[in-house]
Design a protein that fits this description.
By secondary structure, the protein is of the alpha/beta class. Helix content is about 25%, strand content about 25%. The chain has helices spanning about 75-85, 105-115, 130-135, 160-170, 185-195, 220-230, 245, and strands at about 5-10, 10-15, 25-35, 55-60, 65-70, 70-75, 90-95, 120-125, 140-145, 175-180, 205-210, 235-240.
Length: about 250
Amino acid sequence: MKKSKATGNISEVFASIQGEGPHIGTMQLFIRLAGCTLNCKRCELKEYQQIQEHFSIRPWPGLRNIRMTNPVTADKLFHKLKNLYELDDFYCISILGGEPLEQTAFLAEFIPMLTKRNIMVFVETSGLLPAEFEQLFELADLWCVDLKISRAWGFNGKLRRKHERILAAAKPENTYFRILLDSNDDPESIISQLKGLKTSQYELVLQPFAYAPSHVNDWDTSTILEWINLFKPYFRQVRWIPQVHKLLRII
């Protein structure tokens, strides 16, 4: 193996079940990358925007956390994880942030170290960095791409060109889109931003904001079904899935 040159900044590594999206309930190893400069108005993960000197790897319950120093090379992180976990036991390795695509060089080295060993890699991204998405798309097995078209994000319909580039590079067989919603979002504003986008072959996950003026309990059956039906003409399949891990109060 060539010696790793690129370095990455990590917030945390931990094993848990996936609590979001169509892969919900599967056991995954989560690698949360540190840092994000996108300044989304309704960010629910502000604590991961800053890069810390150290990060923790949480092995299985009952074992002591491992502390490592940022930045870390791709091969050092890979070998540490290989020694701590049976990586083949996980449904996939989930890379999230922050915004992972802000560390493109690191991921371009790290992801192939996993996939060459038939370990599936899942990446979540904001959908705001199309050039980086184009560069990394073929490396990972699964993608979740946010469509930040709720007014809560504060982008006011200015992301269309980014969405078009993402759609031009993505493939429906391994990519799904996610829209975070508040139950009192404006449906007309959101749908107006979807019209003309080539999303009909993709699956959409509607996910209520965890921290919003409306709580997840404000989503009654009628409201959920109305939102699903609203998006059905634009996507192959639409699912409404809350953050189950937060409802269960687990990591």
